Amino acid sequence: MRANCSSSSACPANSSEEELPVGLEVHGNLELVFTVVMAVMMGLLMFSLGCSVEFRKLWSHIRRPWGIAVGLLCQFGLMPLTAYLLAISFSLKPAQAVAVLVMGCCPGGTISNIFTFWVDGDMDLSITMTTCSTVAALGMMPLCLYLYTLSWNLEQNLTIPYQNIGITLVCLTIPVAFGIYVNYRWPKQSKIILKIGAIVGGVLLLVVAVAGVVLAKGSWNSDITLLTISFIFPLIGHVMGFLLALLTHQSWQRCRTISLETGAQNIQMCVTMLQLSFTAKQLVQMLTFPLAYGLFQLLDGFLIVAAYKMYKRRLKNEHRKKNTRCEEGCHNKKSTSPKETGAFLEVNEEVTITSGPSMPMDLHTTLEPTGHISSCT
Q1: What b-and-e string marks burial along 102-119, b requiring 16 or more CB atoms within 10 Å of the CB?
Q2: Which of 108, 154, 355, 375 has the smallest set of CB atoms within 10 Å of its CB?
Q3: Which has the closest alpha carbon to 1: 130, 137, 198, 175?
């Protein structure tokens, strides 16, 4: 591992003496577009989502960090291990294997926060986990990369983008702090800001996805194996994060939050680290994976949100039908005439008198409608 490089001549990946291969200029344009869009999206989303955070709940997560601990275990325990196993199982080339491992060692991305909001997750935990994983990446990224690359004999050292991590932290903490303050001072206005931010955030996510497909179309290679890994990797992260949260007895709301946080990685940080660590020719083979991972990450997130919305609508419809049947039953019982009620009681009385030894069972049966009426009212 080595420190971050600031000048282009200090890093082999940024050396101007080496001629850039065909298609790498597209990556330069892609990086510029992603940098601008992601900066705007991150600032807007973090401010609007910060309007949903209550300082009291945020402090409770920090004081009792069980959910945060489970999230960090998923982020820097399960994800790097999964990346290593996928690289070994699919027998990837060294450059591609490193790209997969770097992605697995990156902290959580801000995209998980907007998806957590859409699935009614724990926003306080989501934002806290994103911030804590970014801070922990300062030490956990070099440690995980060192441990998993011991047997790979890399010719080049991996450069940790400390400057990029610092910028991410600033873009996280400052807008969130303003959002928390707005929510504290103007709670009604903060709800409006939250709704607008969620809508604009969704539009920006679609813009990023479309820009990624259009600008990177010339750099997609025909390696189906790498694309397959980029498709299943975030899915494995979502499933494993949910199962670990469930095994540690977290609430359903926290399980959804930890699941989304685990599968969503910081794509920009992965791309920056690869550019700082490898040559231009190597980047042609490596940059395909983080771009594909980012697109499939968006697709998986939208599918999870859609599935949750359908499940939530189904529960509402079932609850509405149950209430409608209950109200109709109550209305029919109340509209029964006194003569019909007397006849009903007489029949029940005859049944209970002639029942003999089975009287308690029949008596219970005749009381069930009465219990139903009391529950409806």
Answers
A1: bbbbbbbbbbbbbbbbbb
A2: 375
A3: 137
